[in-house]
Model the fold of this input.
Amino acid sequence: MSIKDNLLKIKESLPQNVTLVAVSKTKPLADIQEAYDAGHRIFGENKVQEMTEKWESLPKDIEWHMIGHLQRNKVKYMASFVALVHGVDSLRLLKEINKRAKQNDRVIPCLLQVHIAEEESKFGFDETELLDLIHSGTLDSLQHIEIKGLMGMATFTENTQQVKKEFQSLKRLFDRVKLELPGIEELSMGMSGDYEIALAEGSSMVRLGSSIFGARN
Done:
């Protein structure tokens, strides 16, 4: 199956209101161009330097999503073009994104990352921290970011019941946060291994790499 075939097959299977982020990390420009030529425009990278190099080389109507763990000292390199930051996991990072967005005279859309997995290696706010942040009023002072929704990663496990439970907990939290922040609309959850479960639990955005581009080397 070609990249184009994989993309079209996945797009046909996704509900209308779900956004597909093609995870292009480690993939060469030619692969991304092939997906672009098949009509796809939204790509996700997990390293700022790699994303910046690809942004410089590829068509400018691509929406680049930063999906990996983001270090504060790297924000400045992508602030002029990044379309959505998925993994905002601290107030300090939010403030840095706000500062760099202001310097570039733009508003950067962000998702707040919630820690739902049982793995310690995953990043994100826990439920209490997230609600404290929202209730603190701090977000109102950050004029150059727009909170678009939440993002979370389930535990990497064969246990589909556990994955389902984690996605359900994130959806519940999303519904609760939406009462406080009515403008949020995106719930980014689900990757190649578990996106069908995520869709069933209400995901609006899935991040798929290997099922489009093939297995990573």
